[in-house]
Amino acid sequence: xxxxxxxxxxxxxxxxxxxxxxxxxxxxxxxxxxxxxxxxxxxxxxxxxxxxxxxxxxxxxxxxxxxxxxxxxxxxxxxxxxxxxxxxxxxxxxxxxxxxxxxxxxxxxxxxxxxxxxxxxxxxxxxxxxxxxxxxxxxxxxxxxxxxxxxxxxxxxxxxxxxxxxxxxxxxxxxxxxxxxxxxxxxxxxxxxxxxxxxxxxxxxxxxxxxxxxxxxxxxxxxxxxxxxxxxxxxxxxxxxxxxxxxxxxxxxxxxxxxxxxxxxxxxxxxxxxxxxxxxxxxxxxxxxxxxxxxxxxxxxxxxxxxxxxxxxxxxxxxxxxxxxxxxxxxxxxxxxxxxxxxxxxxxxxxxxxxxxxx
Amino acid sequence: xxxxxxxxxxxxxxxxxxxxxxxxxxxxxxxxxxxxxxxxxxxxxxxxxxxxxxxxxxxxxxxxxxxxxxxxxxxxxxxxxxxxxxxxxxxxxxxxxxxxxxxx
Lengths: 359, 104
Prior knowledge:
The complex is a heterodimer of chains A (359) and B (104). Chain A is 38% helix and 14% strand.
């Protein structure tokens, strides 16, 4: 945490909090900036409403030097609301900000826990029962995937390519839409990226036959949720949420690139794939097809490689983070190697294959 | 004719100086940036060393033709040579960017 002073009008914030809570006065007893990205600021505030109990909240706002980003605070607030109502363990969204602070913000209840992926996979005191954690995450994903289009509060999301009601158009599958975006990016990239193109070609030839359109997180991985000693306390970072096939979330979570070196723990580097699937299947009533999840794990590596290239291309416009952004391009070869192993373009003894967990 | 020590060697020497002499003097808040600098130097050093050695992969213009053939499905069959080139190129890139991640 940081002892920085918030750069907003404290009196304006307190008036806003009075309107939200109905209290005659709300004092901000403490304010500490939490670690986070450069695009948003997260502040832990301890509030004392007159005649009420202390309340720990997080105020999330645009940074003073805002840049174009994927989601506005209002959109993020709506996603949290929908996820919260679906029973997903997210910080409870409390109040969407107005123009009181001169920048967009919202306030959510503070969730305790640790989120750093490198620390979680190595610290056994966090979420002591890792199999239970993996199973819980499976259940949480299944709850999120119950949210189906249309959802009026999520009109800002790109519309799912559903068939027209009169079937005049057949629609597209989530994988077709996603792969088209990947191809569009690679077509305009100045370097040929042959390994990524090979993976794209493989994915285009192996699209799952049965797909669905549900609300998906699309960045649900170790490092983007909080845990305490008992288990999961909050799923965070909803910036990439979109309508897609629910198996995309499972593929992203199990992708080897997101296991933080604990490659034998196929569910996010924290537990077994069997436990994750068990939680998901028990809550959803569905049976997971391992080949489908394998497709989305391959897709996860391609998508992460493309994101890395996109981030690297921003180094010319973002001088402050130019070195970090430039280095991001250098994670692509490792992702490319994994893609070749997963798609059979490697020495046979190094090839990966779809994992079938024993239930 | 270039002056010795080479660019690659200068990067190696500079990286050692940053790690062993500067990093211990920096506040903790600056350590992440210092390590990124060292990582970038190591990558640059390896790229310079690799550039000095002949590579076994196709030049960029040929890769564009290669990917066009790939998109047309010409590597879908048991075209071991084409896939082997992909593997070799990726290993060469990984040897520069992150050699610890090379298999074996």
